[in-house]
Specification:
single chain, 133 residues, mainly alpha, 0% strand, flat
């Protein structure tokens, strides 16, 4: 105990006591923050959900190009969707579920190329030979 004299032990104990009391006086509080609605994002009716699905399908480049080829403008499409019955809109939304929303397939091709290149690099690092016949 001669490396740690009595006054230094007392001072260290006193500093630790004050430190722990300060932590006890201001404990950490945690909890969930209340949620707030962020504008009009809730879909109130099934018609709104169907309309959103159809509009998402109309964002596809191929669909937009086909409509332009047939001579239909985007304004005419919006007017027809606004006047469509609930049953017709639901049928159109159901038919457009299989379409990609807004994409044209370029992302898929790039993703596949990245995977192929990654496999080739891994095989080269493992000193494996790639033979294509």
């Amino acid at each position: 105990m001669r490396f740690f004299p009595r006054p230094l032990r007392f001072a260290t104990a006193l500093v630790m006591l004050v430190y722990w009391c300060a932590l006890e006086a201001a404990p950490a509080a945690a909890g969930l923050a209340p949620s707030q609605p962020s504008g009009v994002t809730a879909i109130a009716r099934p018609r709104d959900a169907d309309l959103a699905a159809v509009e998402r399908a109309l964002e596809n480049r191929i669909v937009a190009q086909k409509l332009r080829d047939y001579g239909v403008t985007p304004e005419q499409v919006k007017a027809r969707l606004a006047n469509a019955s609930d049953q017709d809109l639901h049928t159109l939304a159901t038919a457009s579920k299989g379409l990609p929303s807004g994409g044209d397939g370029v992302g898929l091709i790039i993703g596949l190329l990245v995977i192929v290149i990654l496999v080739i690099v891994i095989l080269k690092l493992m000193n494996k030979e790639i033979v294509i016949k």
